[in-house]
Design a protein that fits this description.
With 280 residues, the protein is mainly α. The chain is built from 13 helices and no strands. The protein starts with a helix and ends with a helix.
Length: 280
Amino acid sequence: MFVIIGAIIVLACVIGGYSIHGNIYLLFQPIELLIIGGAAVGAFIIQSPTKVLGQVVKNSFRVLYAKGTSKAEFLEILGLLNDIFTKMRKEGLIAIEGDIENPEQSAIFAKYPGILKNHHALNFICDNLKVIISTNVTPHELDDIMEFEIETHHKESMMPSHSIAKVADGLPALGIVAAVLGVVITMGKIAEPPEVLGESIGAALIGTFLGVLLSYGFVGPIATNLEYIAEEDMIIFQVIKIALVSFVGGAAPQIAVEFARRVIPSGDKPGFTELEESIR
């Protein structure tokens, strides 16, 4: 919603401010937009492997509905981990095998539907718990394994943002290309009256205007938004990692989730008492 509001503000301020003293009709140059937009899409296809193209199309829509991870979602993660750790401590490591093999059918996971919907976090939790119950892994080794996995996931999550950012960087130059083509057309009208030449030159300059506006007003901010989304996703994995490493290191379930709570950003971090009441 805020993305749409921001786009409306950009258009309203730029076009509205220009229309006070300028001829708004001159801004309507569909051919310039075709040149810039078509060239940008073509360059994007050239620079992106098929996998990246799919990720960009899939993730671009996230800017419209992504709300970020809330305090309630962090409490769900910490509550789930506390329940799992408690069961492992009371009944033994192997007691959670059925839960992590089929989390959709697990009574523990069923209490936390938000985690079941987050497939990346769900797989991360289950895969690393399988390592814990099947091997005698040390906290240091587990920390390294998860850190490599988080880094790989982060690089993959950043691909759409980086790809769109490169398109944004190229849009001003493509705007210049459209402007130069407009000047070439104007030179073919050199014998026309000054008012015709003026309108033609103005139309040519719209290419530069559109390239810069699209880059810094729309495409660039979308890339930045996707980057923030990817960075926020990382926090969830870090929270899970701290809890698992702490538990393997010998911390009690409630202490392990408390250590994990500490890495949550202040805006969404539940208080100590709030977490204690949630997991009680």
